[in-house]
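quick one, 257 residues, struct below
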Amino acid sequence: MLDGKVALVTGAGAGIGRAIALALAKEGATLAAADIDLAAAQKTAADAAGNKGLAIEADCGDVASIDAMIARVVKELGHIDIIVNNAGVTRYAYIMDLTEADWDRIHRVNAKGVFFCLQRAAKEMIAQKSGGRIINIASISGRGYAGASNAAYAASKGAVIALTKMAAQQLGRYDINVNAICPGVTRTELGQRNAATRAAQRGVSIEELQQEQERGIPIGRANTPDDIAAMAVFLASPGARNITAQCYNVDGGLVPN
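---
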């Protein structure tokens, strides 16, 4: 389905990013796996069986690093057709406990980083004159989900949702589709760390906290990273050629649009 396409996934070393990277490779895309942890990126690229993958160490909060990442993909793989802007950071915190350092750290990657990854990838796609797919990983936290890890994170993901809609309007003339996925509760390493902090503050076990979360989900279960990957594969596929400017919740019905 994605044979001949080059797909760049940021934050591909673990969790949702890794699942998306492997799913795109399974569908035939040539994978560029980028992560701030080079060893993790290398493992993802190596695990994309039969795929001539590329592993890149990149700090997606640093524009020079983003520029180098995009340049390397184009130089070594020839072009870029799909980018999944997944890299992100957060921590669990009450609104009154957030600091300027928290705000800057979170927005540096989650908002600024997504914008410049999108912009730099779009520049290459425009030059190639063959269209492209940009998929941003937002969150239901950006839609007002009360269980967000913190308010600064929610604001950063709200920015991604707004950026997705604006970018789609301005890049559509180049046959570039821009969409976002808004995951709900998802069982990842990062989610587990946040759950541990939240559970400790409430004096309950992680298992009790997770069971409580799942009771609040209409479909009765949390996401696995593969649930998000399935949506990313669809948005990258030929079947989604006329879908753009959309932000899709994958959350079991937790936050209705």
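The beta strands are 6-10, 30-35, 54-57, 82-85, 132-137, 176-183, 247-250.
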